[in-house]
UniProtKB/TrEMBL annotation:
Source organism: Solanum commersonii
TM spans (from-to): 30-51, 71-98, 119-146, 166-197, 218-242, 254-273
Signal peptide bounds: none
Keyword terms, alphabetized: Membrane, Transmembrane, Transmembrane helix
Protein name, UniProt field: Transmembrane protein
């Protein structure tokens, strides 16, 4: 048991160290693609959380059809914006990391061009995974509402906006729901890498990821918990700071937003690269044939010949 946990810690440390080395060895390249695709995500999340809620609260009336319609449309458009940049960020970062691992030349142009092959498979995987996440959340919410209705009819609880019962139910719901979603995300941590490298898509990549990561789930969980909570905390804290009065206009607010955005995209980039490193390790662990120089051409998302031509031109 101790040996297993020590091996897990050792592998986790090795993956994090390898991720940093990959990032540092081609820092300008990873910064460039991150500024193009990941920075808009972090920056817009900060602005959305700080300004959108500040505008709508406390005067926003969700019972008004016009305002509710505007909120729904704006949220949908913003979700499309996030999805597009996320998919492009995942695709270009994963492609670049694989090329670096196999010591092939990379440049920004070829990384962006790789999206011609991987965008729609990544979109398919994204839609399937998010549909499952949303379905589980909605199902859990319906079950919770049903239970609450029964308890209310029996007179066991009384729900008000300031009720302790309501707070308890919210906390209990999060305690049950969040671990389920984290478990799924942990099992699917290699899905986007598989989509880019193996040209699979949709539910097939989710099954493939769960199978491949088996035996290294705790390592995948550690990687997830090492990056994601920090990114979420930074974005939420910065948004809450900007929401205080006119802080967003101050020099301190602008500086904090810039710093959080930069640190956010760096951590997000390294998380994506670490999943590529974990994928390579899991392939070796499962005694699967890794991509060789001769076999690389079989993967449509990694056009080596085109990559080398682009490198010569650039």
């Amino acid at each position: 048991m101790n040996t297993s946990s020590e091996n897990g810690r050792s592998l986790w440390s090795e993956i994090i160290e390898s991720t940093r080395k990959i990032f540092k060895s081609h820092a300008r390249h990873f910064h460039a693609i991150s500024i193009l695709f990941l920075l808009p995500i972090i920056f817009s999340l900060i602005l959305y959380l700080s300004f959108e809620l500040a505008i709508f609260y406390p005067d926003y009336d969700f019972t008004s059809y016009t305002q509710l319609q505007f909120f729904a449309i704006s949220s949908f458009v913003y979700a499309l914006f996030l999805a597009f940049f996320f998919i492009c960020g995942v695709g270009t970062t994963t492609y670049s990391a694989v090329q670096v691992i196999y010591d092939r030349p990379i440049n920004v142009v070829s990384s962006i061009k790789s999206m011609r092959n991987s965008f729609f498979p990544l979109l398919s995987t994204f839609i399937v995974s998010q549909t499952i996440f949303i379905s589980i959340t909605l199902l859990f919410a319906l079950i919770l509402v049903f239970v609450v209705r029964i308890l209310q009819s029996l007179g066991l609880i009384e729900l008000k906006s300031d009720s302790d019962h309501l707070l308890f139910l919210v906390i209990f719901s999060l305690i049950v729901l969040v671990p389920i979603l984290i478990w799924l995300q942990m099992n699917w941590s290699l899905a986007y890498v598989i989509t880019v490298v193996e040209s699979k898509k949709g539910y097939e990549t989710l099954r493939r990821s769960a199978k491949l990561v088996k035996g290294e789930r705790w390592v995948a969980l550690k990687i997830l918990m090492y990056y994601e909570p920090v990114i979420v905390w930074m974005v939420v804290w910065c948004a809450m700071f900007l929401d205080r009065g006119e802080q967003w206009r101050s020099f301190r607010g602008i500086l904090l937003t810039a710093f959080t955005s930069v640190m956010g995209y760096i951590l997000m980039n390294q998380y994506l690269v670490s999943n590529v490193v974990l994928y390579m390790h899991c392939k070796e662990l499962n005694d699967e044939k890794l991509m060789s120089e001769t076999a690389a051409g079989e993967y449509v998302s990694l056009p080596v010949e085109e990559e080398e031509k682009n490198h010569d031109v650039v």
